[in-house]
Amino acid sequence: MGRFIVKLDDYYLEWSTIVDAPITYGMKLKEFKEFYKDEYGNRGMEELPKRLERVENQGVSTYHPYNNLENLITGNRAGDNEEELTKQEIIKGYCIDRPED
Fold first, then answer.
1. First-to-last C-alpha distance (Å) of the chain
2. Quick one: 30 exposed, middle or buried, by C-beta within 10 A (0-12, 13-18, 19+)?
3. Dihedral angle sign, alpha carbons of residues 59, 37, 95, 23
4. Running DSSP on this structure, what letter comes out for residue 39?
5. Among candidates 54, 60, 83, which has minimal Cα distance to 14?
6. pLDDT (average), residues 20-47
């Protein structure tokens, strides 16, 4: 699979299906767009609007309709020792209480 953009409340982050966890901390949309341009360049920015449209509709940027946000985070390994976290625990740990840069 790979990497998806995920929206948790008002935070955007990248999620890896390889590690079944976030691979970035949650960011507000403006900050996420800046990160995305730095990470993927102009070519990445060309596809970003369509990816964000899917995120707004289903919580995740995947094309597969069965792979909505709830399905994606079920069985995640985002916690210590790869334990599964709830959506609220992910938001707290990766978005609200994220380390300062």
1. 29
2. exposed
3. positive
4. H
5. 60
6. 96
The residue ranges of DSSP E strands in 1-101, in sequence order, are 3-8, 11-16, 21-22
Residue 101 domain flag:
no
Residue 99 confidence (pLDDT): 77
Domain count, the chain: 1
* Domain range enclosing 39: 3-96
For 54-98, the pLDDT digits (tens) are: 999 999 998 876 678 998 899 999 999 999 999 999 999 999 998
Q: For residue 47, is it within any domain?
A: yes
- Quickly tell me which residue has 């069985």 as its tokens: 75
